[in-house]
Amino acid sequence: MKGNYQTFYKKAIQEKTGYVTKDGSWAAVPLMNSKQFAIINNGEWVHTSKNFDFAKSYIIKENRRR
Fold it and tell me: Which pTM does this prediction carry?
């Protein structure tokens, strides 16, 4: 799919229950019964963050590197 994935997940991003980059290659998915988020890059689990804000900043930092 081409387009902006953030428009589809707008409510999740606003409520800090998940995050996705515009191109959909990076995502932060909440882990069950915890405040932690799994960081997914192109379908592969690459990192775990302790909360939404850390997950989002990790994705932004790593996305700039690549």
Answer: 0.85
In total, how many domains does the chain have? 1
User: How many whole angstroms separate alpha carbon 32 and alpha carbon 8?
Assistant: 22
41: closest CA among 20, 65, 17, 15? 20
Tokens, residue 57: 């900043």
Looking at residue 31, what DSSP letter applies? P
Other residues' Cβ atoms within 10 Å of the Cβ of residue 27: 20
Please give the Cα distance from 45 to 28 (Å, whole number): 10
**Alpha-carbon gap, residue 38 to 27, rounded angstroms:** 8
Residue 40 confidence (pLDDT): 97
Range of the domain at 12: 5-65
Residue type, 41: N
Report the run of H or E that residue 44 belongs to, with start and end.
strand 44-49
